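TEACHING EXERCISE
Course module: macromolecular assemblies
Task: Read the component lines below, then compare them to the predicted structure of the full complex.
Student: A.B.
Group: 4
Components provided:
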Amino acid sequence: MWDDAEVSVEIVVMPDAEAAARAVSKLLVDVADADGSVVLAGGSTPRRAYELAAAAHSDWGGAEVWFGDDRCVPADDPRSNQLLVREALLEWLVVRPTVHSFPTDLPAAEAAAAYDAALRDELLDLVLLGLGPDGHTASLFPGSDTLDVRDRLAVAAEPGLEPFVERVTLTIPALEAGAHVVFLAVGEEKAAAARRAFADEPSHMTPASLIRSRHGTTTVILDEAAAALLV
Ligand code: 6PG
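Instructor-supplied answer key:
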């Protein structure tokens, strides 16, 4: 958990969702260009950022891609975060990165344990996170026991929102280890959660409020609609 005194959070407000996606795509391309490692977010919001990143930079050969969470569905299921990343990013690249997907064909606890082992000793350059209207991020939901896990980097999780399928998610220690933690949220439906996550006191009822880069920087990229209650 972070201590206010140590952590700097930069809040970047872009005019619209497209500009916010473009800002994130630039950060992704910088990591890929530097042969770095990135944790990608799921959900719908980052799709445009992935498309723009693929269009801007097609050789990700030296990069490593991890997932912040996934839904325990087959990799070609429309609810799969692996499918999102494949369709929006990987399929457009000339040289693909090394991709570390959650083995969602396994039972959730086994998939999480395998991912926990794979992540040990990995240095994460950029961790991209979304924000749910309830303040969740990755598959860390309000009031969940997963928020208190300190000894594992990945765990199974119960869904708090659609899609109501079992999840696998990185834990707070794994996410806050990112050298650069970047949140992306757009739209007025995210404004209340953004206020709770980035302006109010940290709370277990707003998981995104609990995650900041432990040793690096944290950037929050919002469009004006999502930032409406922050100013
Ligand atoms: C997931 C995500 C999740 C997502 C938020 C926001 O797998 O669902 O990792 O944390 O970032 O739910 O989702 P939207 O971008 O679709 O609003």
